[in-house]
Design a protein that fits this description.
With about 325 residues, the protein is mostly beta strands. It has helices at about 10-20, 325-329; strands at about 5, 30-40, 50-55, 60-65, 70-80, 80-90, 100-110, 115-120, 125-130, 135, 140-145, 150-155, 160-170, 170-180, 185-190, 205, 210, 215-225, 235-240, 245-250, 260-265, 270-275, 285-290, 300, 310, 320-325. About 5% of the residues lie in helices and about 45% in strands.
């Protein structure tokens, strides 16, 4: 499996790439930064080939790569300036793959050297499988987008359709699998945590992604209050052809969120949408159908109020609505 772990401060680094490296400073107006990778308590981490970037005011002012001792040196940093040093890429290191790290607020003065550590902790792991209409989907491009930090992690599925993201930092992730460069991605969401003190990093296994060239039906459900709904988390979704009786099922993401989506690739026809909410400690599970009472699409508890929705194979069809407030809380 080919694996590329994440880059940190994506937006800032992208801006730096467009602006370019800052022009070389004169010796009197430049400083040096020495970096040691370390655990949060300061213990040195001897990890080679970690790419680092030094970011000044809206510009990348230096690049460096760690040696076998986990150290690197930036020279010719324009001064005076306040700089952030961040990891660009962390090489795979098995279960001990680190999440991206940074050190901010580094004051650089002309003619001086400042020594800093960049703290690293073990990152989370997210893994799963990708399938296509003909079986395991090998070589699929996969992205993990951290919606909280804008960090991006990439990998590809192996010959059996399996994938694994290592060294993820804490955050809410949107996992995407692409059948081709122009296809709509299969999407799944999850939240993970990097190592926190004595608490280990998250180890998450997701259900199968179905990576197709296009999706014919996207079903969504939203909590009426727009707040996160535990009953929608992991709820099952079934669509049944109103003419043939053929049914197709999947589940919503287990991430606690205020809206959930499910994707289907199915033949053209009219389909009845059914969701079975998850039971919680406070509420029982419910069976709901998508209806249109009063002309507004929403989920109802009465099967007789269900309204079939149109699906056209090869097109994009999105249907859904809010769930009753008593259910979504």
């Amino acid at each position: 499996m080919r694996l590329i772990t994440g880059t940190a401060l994506v937006v800032a680094l992208a801006a730096g790439a467009l602006i370019g490296l800052a022009p070389p400073a004169t010796a009197a107006g430049s400083g040096t930064i020495t970096v040691q990778l370390a655990t949060p308590d300061g213990t040195a981490i001897r990890l080679a080939d970690v790419e680092l970037a030094a970011i000044g005011t809206d510009v990348v002012v230096g690049n460096a790569t760690t040696d076998d001792d986990g150290t690197a040196t930036f020279t010719g940093i324009p001064a005076p300036d306040t700089v952030t040093v961040t990891t660009r890429q962390l090489p795979p290191h098995g279960t001990e793959t680190y999440a991206p790290g940074l050190r901010s607020g580094i004051a650089v003065r002309g003619g001086s050297t400042v020594a800093v550590t960049v703290p690293l902790v073990i990152g989370a792991t997210v893994q799963g499988g990708v399938v296509s209409p003909t079986g395991p989907a090998a070589g699929r491009l996969m992205y993990a987008w951290n919606e909280d930090t804008s960090q991006v992690f990439r990998t590809t599925s192996d010959s059996t359709g399996q994938y694994r993201f290592l060294g993820l930092s804490t955050g809410k992730y949107r996992i995407e699998a692409y059948a081709s460069g122009t296809a709509s991605p299969a999407v799944w969401k999850t939240r993970v945590y990097q190592q926190r003190g004595t608490l280990p990093a998250s180890q998450v296994t997701l259900s199968l992604h179905y990576a197709h060239s296009d999706y014919d039906l996207v079903v969504y459900a939203a909590s009426a209050s727009r707040g996160p709904s535990a009953q929608l988390s992991g709820a099952s979704v079934t669509v049944t052809n109103a003419t043939t009786g053929a049914s197709f099922s999947t589940r919503f993401s287990t991430l606690l969120d205020n809206e959930q989506t499910a994707q289907f690739q199915i033949p053209s026809g009219q389909y009845v949408v059914e969701i079975r909410t998850a039971a919680t400690t406070a509420t029982t599970a419910h069976v709901l159908w998508l209806g249109r009472p009063g002309g507004v699409y929403r989920y109802v508890a009465d099967r007789a109020q269900a309204v079939p929705v149109d699906v056209v194979f090869g097109g994009f069809n999105g249907w859904g609505g809010a769930v009753p407030e008593a259910v979504s809380r």
